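SEVERITY: medium
COMPONENT: batch folding queue
REPORTER: lab tech (J.R.)

DESCRIPTION
The queue accepted two submissions in a row. Attaching both inputs and their returned structure tokens so the on-call engineer can compare them side by side.

ATTACHMENT 1
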Amino acid sequence: MEALLPLIITFGLMWALLIRPQQRRVRQHQELVASVSTGDEVITTGGIVGTIASVVDDIVTLEVAPGTSIRLLRSAIQTRISPYADDVPGDDELDDDELFDEGQFDAEPVAEPLVAEPLVAEPLVAEPPVAEPDVSYIPPPKDPPTSPPPTGEKA
């Protein structure tokens, strides 16, 4: 029994750290895919951004540019782009008004804007010229090797 305890603890940790979060992500993706409708702006798994023009069963027509549409599977939708920042899931940040009310931002503008110093171009260093090869001496062509003339007799 003592030998099984580390095995059970290891499986429990694997389930808690690996399997359960993956199941949650799969469930969220299935809910997203089931809830897309015409007019939603989405990002596909390939990184294509577009607006859903029509949905028929498992096929979605995505308009990527005016007059340009592509068809893809519903499951290829990765994310829905929300026009409102409040609708983004997991966005727990405070609004600008709430930050200002809590004193997180200074109410006074900065007195002087920061100005970067102008860039000074350094002179380029010219590389030394490359010497041209001397082509005034061209060796004479080599004579082809001579072979004895055929004699006509076979040895």
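ATTACHMENT 2
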Amino acid sequence: MGREPGGTVPEGIAPPPRPAGMPLAVEAVNVTRRFGAVRALAGVDLAVTEGEFFGLLGPNGAGKTTLISILAGLTRADAGTARILGHDVVADYRNARRKLGVVPQELVFDPFFTVRETLAIQSGYFGLRRNDAWIDEILHHLDLTAKADANMRSLSGGMKRRVLVGQALVHRPPVIILDEPTAGVDVELRQSLWGFIRKLNRDGHTIILTTHYLEEAEALCGRIAMLRAGRVVALDTTRALLSRFPGLTVRLTAERVPASWQPRVLRQEAGTFFLGLERHADLEGLLAALRTEGIGIGELALQEADLEQVFLRIMADAAASAKLEATA
């Protein structure tokens, strides 16, 4: 994961340059898509090089799933082009499909087949015969060997999601897109799944991950793009994104926040406020304001900025910029 290539991003965002001659695994150029009056994608440019572990993050409705659907050939862009390892997803769709495996966000399965039959049928879609050895390996790594002959409808939600991962991998695609792969999955499976995915990445597979578990993206991804309202609003290495906001975060449980500190509230969750600090010395100012206004402290903790805090700040800045553009 040591590669730090760049991509095409909005004005003002300067990711590191892509190494010369590095082949692209996924490329999107000015991709736009509307659904009626809703603009799902507003000219997305993205370039992911071979072998990257790449994160694609954004709030619900940002356009992540629409972009994935275009790459997978499930939806056509209104404008722009998309390629998988140089194969246009429309003009050269057969080769583009063969190079790509997608783990969808929704649980989609056929209730009439066993786990092994499901993977064998998926192999057949790609014209693969005598694929049993690889299917056995997938079952082993996804801890599905004991369920190989179980009917799909008898599996738990977490088990079904494991099978979806297996289906995406059964034709050994060099590019793998994981759309919320650990949603509803227990901690033990999550660890074993990421161990398997890391191995695939070390073996040369390109991984693109969307997740709402930002700690996963922070730990796994070498480079991250953030989408909001169908636009790329940040694109850089994970390390560079984390250093963009070098401050601290205070987690404060209290009935309210002092009026002078309201602008520093990053988010609020059921009586707990998350406030941004630029330096440790600012903490004394917060404590003084709490004493002055007679606000009792239920709990207070100080933590370094993580990807979640960076994400929230970037989304807030993007929302403010969009509001200014709309009123200009």
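NOTES FROM REPORTER
Residues 244-327 form a domain with the Alpha-Beta Plaits fold (CATH 3.30.70).
No errors were logged for either attachment.
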